[in-house]
C-alpha cells in the first residue's frame, strides 16, 4: 500500500525506471545461482524477434534476430 506522504520509490529517486531496476535485480539473481541453474536462467534471458522491411505497402521476408547477452 502506497503512503500518502508522496515519497517516491527508491528506484525512482535514484533516477531509474522500474524496468531498469527490475533488470538489475534479475541479473543479480541469475548471477547468484549455482550451476546448472545459472546456465539455464541465462539461456532463458535471450530475446528473439523478427524484423520486416516494408516496400510499396508490402512486407518483405522477415529476418529473425537475437538480442545478444552481455556476460
From TrEMBL:
<keyword id="KW-0472">Membrane</keyword>
<keyword id="KW-0066">ATP synthesis</keyword>
<dbReference type="InterPro" id="IPR006721">
    <property type="entry name" value="ATP_synth_F1_esu_mt"/>
</dbReference>
<dbReference type="GO" id="GO:0005743">
    <property type="term" value="C:mitochondrial inner membrane"/>
</dbReference>
<keyword id="KW-0139">CF(1)</keyword>
<dbReference type="Pfam" id="PF04627">
    <property type="entry name" value="ATP-synt_Eps"/>
</dbReference>
<keyword id="KW-0496">Mitochondrion</keyword>
<keyword id="KW-0406">Ion transport</keyword>
<dbReference type="GO" id="GO:0042776">
    <property type="term" value="P:proton motive force-driven mitochondrial ATP synthesis"/>
</dbReference>
<keyword id="KW-0813">Transport</keyword>
<dbReference type="GO" id="GO:0045259">
    <property type="term" value="C:proton-transporting ATP synthase complex"/>
</dbReference>
<comment type="subunit">
    <text>F-type ATPases have 2 components, CF(1) - the catalytic core - and CF(0) - the membrane proton channel. CF(1) has five subunits: alpha(3), beta(3), gamma(1), delta(1), epsilon(1). CF(0) has three main subunits: a, b and c.</text>
</comment>
<keyword id="KW-0999">Mitochondrion inner membrane</keyword>
<comment type="function">
    <text>Mitochondrial membrane ATP synthase (F(1)F(0) ATP synthase or Complex V) produces ATP from ADP in the presence of a proton gradient across the membrane which is generated by electron transport complexes of the respiratory chain. F-type ATPases consist of two structural domains, F(1) - containing the extramembraneous catalytic core, and F(0) - containing the membrane proton channel, linked together by a central stalk and a peripheral stalk. During catalysis, ATP synthesis in the catalytic domain of F(1) is coupled via a rotary mechanism of the central stalk subunits to proton translocation.</text>
</comment>
<keyword id="KW-0375">Hydrogen ion transport</keyword>
<dbReference type="GO" id="GO:0046933">
    <property type="term" value="F:proton-transporting ATP synthase activity, rotational mechanism"/>
</dbReference>
<protein>
    <recommendedName>
        <fullName>ATP synthase subunit epsilon, mitochondrial</fullName>
    </recommendedName>
</protein>
<dbReference type="InterPro" id="IPR036742">
    <property type="entry name" value="ATP_synth_F1_esu_sf_mt"/>
</dbReference>
<comment type="similarity">
    <text>Belongs to the eukaryotic ATPase epsilon family.</text>
</comment>
Amino acid at each position: 500500500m502506497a503512503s500518502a506522504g508522496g515519497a517516491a520509490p527508491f528506484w525512482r529517486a535514484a533516477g531509474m525506471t522500474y524496468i531498469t531496476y527490475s533488470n538489475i535485480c534479475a541479473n543479480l539473481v541469475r548471477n547468484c545461482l549455482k550451476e546448472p541453474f545459472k546456465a539455464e536462467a541465462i539461456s532463458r534471458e535471450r530475446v528473439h524477434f523478427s524484423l520486416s522491411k516494408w516496400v510499396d505497402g508490402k512486407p518483405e521476408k522477415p529476418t529473425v534476430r537475437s538480442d545478444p547477452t552481455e556476460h
